């Protein structure tokens, strides 16, 4: 699955229950130009039960914790069996630019959010330091 | 000191995951102890659920006993209304070929209507196919036992519930103007559907029942068993009542509502 919307996802090898996805930060947001790799796993009860999605590339964001777990309602109590990989990745992409700073997993990022200049600086430092490695390995995945 | 340490916030811990894990444990316990749809029970078995002191409920069960023969329970997983509705209705269709034909036609056509409303075609077809497979178990020749097996098979039963949820969502969205004032919390009808109708496990209220009976044109009766009055209050959901042609409005089946839960009733 790929498209012009800055998201893509492919099964991880022969295992159809595990996919690797990528998200590019939305245009006009502080995440523009950044790429993140995510891991999607599908439980036995999918799609009755939600897929599990985690950031593989460390992501500095109010609603993502240091382990890559994402706090997004449609992956939890508002999951519906109609959601698919595309709608989930698009939701995460828009979450990047529109965080829910009232219930943060990363308090530091939530507090900094309103100061977009400082936020962008910390974000880019974090990205360069933590993320550069996994992005370069992801490029080869994308062109397969 | 140790107690304080336990209660304090540990930033390296994922509390969200813990909550979800605990919730899954509770769901597993319910799944292990309650069938999605049970065998028939007598009211003598049900009355034992209430203590001797609970005079109001015991009295109401006597009331039910004077009018109904059996009760079939559904799992308390938030999907009980849909499962009770689906099972009770298909069970009725086993003995009503004319109604079955009418329903089959509505069920077939519903797929294109939902796709027209913008539901994703590929996913929707998947649920519609399974829904139709279960519906068609009514023919050639259908048995109560066959339906019982199907409604206790998660792969069929849960897909069936999802499709009924989509029918409710579709009806609400098609008639948004009529329902928007009955939705609390300043939400649009579409938001309400994606938050309170489409997700599995979201409980049903009056508005969901009205929508499903109207979407499928099926009249049903609900016996409300609460702490008010001496007898259960029966309430008929009649989707035909606004039409001039008031032909056959006998309820297709009766459900029992006890606060937060729906089961199926079988008349004497």
Explain the overall architecture:
The complex is a heterodimer of chains A (144) and B (268). With 144 residues, chain A is an alpha+beta fold. Chain A is 32% helix and 19% strand. Chain A has a 4-stranded antiparallel β-sheet. Helices cover 54% and strands 13% of the residues of chain B. Chain B contains 12 helices and 6 strands. Classes of the chains: A alpha+beta (144), B alpha+beta (268). Chains A and B meet through loops of A and helix 2, helix 7 and helix 9 of B. Chain B: GO terms for molecular function: cysteine-type deubiquitinase activity; ubiquitin binding. Chain B: One of its GO terms (biological process) is protein K48-linked deubiquitination.
Helix content of chain A: 25-40%
CATH topology descriptor of the largest domain in chain B: 3 helical TM bundles of succinate and fumarate reductases
Helix segment tally of chain A = 3
Q: What is the helix/strand order of chain B?
A: HHEHHEHHHHHHHHEEEE
Low-confidence segments of chain B, ≥5 residues, pLDDT <50? 1-5
**Quaternary class:** heterodimer
CATH superfamily of the largest domain in chain B: Peptidase C65 Otubain, subdomain 2
Please supply descriptive tags for the structure shown above.
heterodimer, A: 144 residues, alpha+beta, four-stranded antiparallel β-sheet, 19% strand, globular, disordered C terminus, B: 268 residues, Phosphorylase Kinase, domain 1, 3 helical TM bundles of succinate and fumarate reductases, 2 domains, six-stranded mixed β-sheet, 12 helices, 6 strands, 54% helix, disordered N terminus, Peptidase_C65_otubain (chain B), ubl conjugation pathway (chain B), ubiquitin binding (chain B), hydrolase (chain B), Ubiquitin thioesterase (chain B)
Give the helices and strands, then pairings.
The complex is a heterodimer of chains A (144) and B (268).
Chain A: E1 7-12, E2 15-24, E3 35-41, E4 52-55, H1 85-97, H2 107-112, H3 116-142
Antiparallel strand pairs in A: 1-2, 2-3, 3-4
Chain B: H1 2-7, H2 15-33, E1 37-41, H3 43-47, H4 55-67, E2 68-74, H5 80-93, H6 97-116, H7 121-135, H8 144-151, H9 154-174, H10 176-179, H11 189-197, H12 206-216, E3 220-224, E4 233-237, E5 254-258, E6 261-267
Parallel strand pairs in B: 3-5
Antiparallel strand pairs in B: 1-2, 2-6, 3-4, 5-6
């Amino acid at each position: 699955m790929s498209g012009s919307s800055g998201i893509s996802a492919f099964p991880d090898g022969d295992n159809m229950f595990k996919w690797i996805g990528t998200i590019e930060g939305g245009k006009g947001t502080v995440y523009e130009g950044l790429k993140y790799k995510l891991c999607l796993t599908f439980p036995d009860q999918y799609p009755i039960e939600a897929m599990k999605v985690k950031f593989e590339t460390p992501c500095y964001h109010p609603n993502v914790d240091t382990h890559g777990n994402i706090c997004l309602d449609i992956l939890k109590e508002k999951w519906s069996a109609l959601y698919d990989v595309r709608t989930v990745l698009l939701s995460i992409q828009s979450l990047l630019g529109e965080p829910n700073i009232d219930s943060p997993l990363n308090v530091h990022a939530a507090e900094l959010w309103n100061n977009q200049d400082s936020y962008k600086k910390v974000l880019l430092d974090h990205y360069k330091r933590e993320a550069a490695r996994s992005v370069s390995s992801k490029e080869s995945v994308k062109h397969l | 000191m140790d107690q304080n340490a336990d209660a304090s916030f540990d930033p390296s811990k994922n509390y969200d995951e813990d909550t979800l894990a605990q919730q899954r444990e509770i769901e597993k316990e319910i799944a292990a102890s309650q069938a999605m749809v049970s065998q028939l029970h007598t009211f003598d078995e049900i009355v034992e659920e209430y203590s001797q002191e609970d005079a109001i409920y015991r009295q109401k069960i006597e009331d039910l006993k004077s009018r109904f023969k059996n009760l079939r329970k559904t799992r308390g997983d938030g999907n009980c209304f849909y499962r009770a509705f689906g099972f009770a209705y298909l069970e009725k269709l086993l003995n009503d070929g004319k109604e079955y034909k009418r329903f089959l036609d509505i069920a077939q056509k519903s797929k294109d209507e939902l796709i027209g409303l913008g539901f994703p075609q590929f996913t929707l077809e998947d649920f519609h196919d399974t829904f139709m497979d279960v519906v068609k178990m009514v023919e050639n020749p259908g048995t109560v036992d066959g339906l019982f097996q199907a409604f206790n098979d998660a792969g069929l039963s849960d897909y069936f519930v999802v499709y009924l949820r989509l029918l409710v969502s579709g009806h609400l969205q098609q008639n948004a103007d009529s329902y928007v004032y009955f939705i609390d919390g300043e939400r649009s009808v579409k938001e309400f559907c994606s938050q309170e109708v489409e997700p599995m496990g979201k409980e049903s209220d009056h508005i969901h029942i009205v929508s499903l009976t109207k979407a499928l044109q099926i009249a049903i009766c609900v016996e409300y068993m609460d702490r008010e009055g001496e007898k259960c209050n029966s309430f008929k959901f009649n989707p035909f009542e606004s039409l001039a042609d008031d032909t056959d409005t006998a309820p297709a089946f009766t459900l029992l509502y006890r606060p937060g839960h729906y089961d199926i009733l079988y008349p004497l």
